[in-house]
Amino acid sequence: MPNNLLIDAQGLTIRSDDALLVDGINVQIGRERVALVGESGSGKSLTARALMGLLSPALHLHADRLEVAGHNALTLQERDWITLRGSRFAMVMQDPKYALNPTRTIGWQVEEPLVLHRKLSRAERREKVCEMLNAVGLPEPRQLMTRYPHQLSGGMGQRVMLAIALITDPDLLIADEPTSALDHAMRDQVLALIRQLVEQRNMGLLLISHDLQQVAEHCERVMVMYKGRLLDTLPAAQLAHATHPYTRTLWACRPSKATHGKPLPVLDRAALEAHHD
């Protein structure tokens, strides 16, 4: 596997006992900003969890090849996954209300990955926590460290989760709909921050989203999923000129000033199935 390739999945398939959920997709991610987009239920989050070793035991994973950070993920033990997730990969979830521990201070939660995965003194850890909270744009970090999640706004909570994810300087950040719980203005701020931090740290980014206009601004490459299949892969700059009917419809169906008072395009699913077959 090339040194710059962090994820190399070939023929990735995920099944439940009675359904095929992800159907033999190929995913390669290096130190770049990649988006995985599609409707709810298309298999985006399942794919991300598989790449992090976080699939439910009730699901069955198969792949012709699945390498993460140079390791054969098909043979990794749970302790190996824990080490990788703490040092090489990190994940930001959708809603800080559910992802943050309401009984622990912000300082404790941001410091915890350092306690588990880095050999630093307490003073060094506290200093790094302050630096990280400052890097994600949170004011007065030493005061913030003593607060609890319920004392933060949604945007502040999302920045805290980003600080937790980046505190160990991982190589790849997986962000699963990281702005879905935020208002529109705050979404743009948080995504711009994620992009800035990823670029500064020369990391890879896998952004899970259903919003093509959003990812076009912040990602370099886009993979489009539909019903567990990977239908389209293209540079983000080419989204407005996509040739695949599903990608074109996703791009055009978002309301805007230009479409005010006009019917939005509707996907012809029968034609899409025929196009895929």
Instruction: Calculate Rg over CA atoms.
Output: 19 Å
Please tell me the overall pLDDT.
Answer: 87
SS summary, helix count: 11
Helix content: 25-40%
DSSP strand (E) fraction? 15-25%
Q: In total, how many beta strands?
A: 11
Q: Strands of the biggest beta sheet: in what spatial order? A: 7-8-9-3-10-11
Poorly predicted runs: none
What do these coordinates show?
By secondary structure, the chain is an alpha/beta fold. The protein has a domain at 96-169. 38% of the residues lie in helices and 23% in strands. It contains eleven helices and eleven strands. Strand 8, helix 8 (184-200) and strand 9 form a beta-alpha-beta unit. Helix 7 (154-166) packs parallel to helix 8. The protein starts with a strand and ends with a helix. 36% of the residues are buried. The model has no long low-confidence stretch (mean pLDDT 87).
List the helices and strands and how they pair.
Blueprint: E1 5-15, E2 20-30, E3 33-37, H1 44-51, E4 60-62, E5 65-68, E6 71-72, H2 78-87, E7 89-92, H3 96-99, H4 106-117, H5 122-135, H6 141-144, H7 154-166, E8 172-176, H8 184-200, E9 204-209, H9 212-218, E10 221-226, E11 229-235, H10 245-252, H11 269-276
Parallel strand pairs: 3-9, 3-10, 7-8, 8-9
Antiparallel strand pairs: 1-2, 1-4, 1-5, 5-6, 10-11
